[in-house]
Amino acid sequence: MSGWVTVAGLGPGREDLVTPEVTAALAEATDIVGYIPYVARIAPREGLTLHPTDNRVELDRATHALEMAAEGRRVVVVSSGDPGVFAMASALFEALEAHPEHAGTEIRILPGITAMLAAAAAAGAPLGHDFCAINLSDNLKPFEILEKRLRHAARGDFAMAFYNPRSKSRPHQFARVLDILREECEPGRLILFARAVTTPEQAINVVTLRDATPEMADMRTVVLVGNASTRRVGPWVYTPRGVAP
């Protein structure tokens, strides 16, 4: 039997947001590999082995998936959101590059709804014009690089989506991010904190940059920052599709 590896996005949280394509791959799998809370979303069944692992072992996880596929197993590597956005798709190809003996492995990447899109939909259309996504974790890049990208994005008047804004191991870093935004943007710029989006615990908080505080974000929060034209209309937040003359 020929094995394969599929990297699948489980969406932002709500089960009905998992795509039919991903659901079909999960039904075919012999093995599920992923971070503990994501694997916990997969119902156990006969013939399926779950391989939950801790955070920060992405390359080990990806290598294990390739090894099992070489043994003829059908492996699904799960990520939340979309696997190509700060997630396991890139890690799998890093592992493949490091282990050329697995170059012939059949690989599929199945997209999912990522948190910034789910958050934007819940709020209206704050990403309606040019935008960028920035991972605020400095685990894989120095903070100096993060600060450079953040300043250029603000100076380019991009709307921005921030992943991993604030954690227990770096509780003060997001305060510095807000300081940088205040140096580069007007104080009335809209900023949106979307926590646990699409789950029963969902909370959407829209404030101005002047009123934003670090405590408004944690690791379950995606932060959206509008551009200079982002505005409210009734309860909604949106960014116009063009640039005012």
Which descriptors would you attach to this protein?
245 residues, 5-stranded parallel sheet, 5-stranded mixed sheet
List the helices and strands and how they pair.
Blueprint: E1 4-9, H1 20-28, E2 31-35, H2 36-39, E3 49-53, H3 58-70, E4 74-79, H4 88-98, E5 106-110, H5 115-123, E6 124-125, E7 131-135, H6 143-155, E8 159-163, H7 173-184, E9 190-195, E10 203-208, E11 221-225, E12 231-233, E13 236-238
Parallel strand pairs: 1-4, 1-5, 2-3, 2-4, 6-13, 7-8
Antiparallel strand pairs: 8-11, 9-10, 9-11, 12-13
Query: What's the rounded overall pLDDT mean?
Result: 94
Listing every helix as H and every strand as E from the N terminus to the C terminus, the arrangement reads EHEHEHEHEHEEHEHEEEEE
Describe the oligomeric state of these chains in a short phrase: single chain
Low-confidence stretches: none
Major beta sheet, strand line-up = 3-2-4-1-5
Structure description:
There is one protein chain. This protein is 29% helix and 25% strand. The protein is built from seven helices and 13 strands. A hairpin with a 7-residue loop joins strand 9 and strand 10. Helix 3 crosses helix 4 (88-98) and helix 6 (143-155) runs parallel beside helix 7 (173-184). 38% of the residues are buried. The mean pLDDT is 94.
Short description:
The chain has 245 residues and is of the alpha/beta class. It is built from 7 helices and 13 strands.
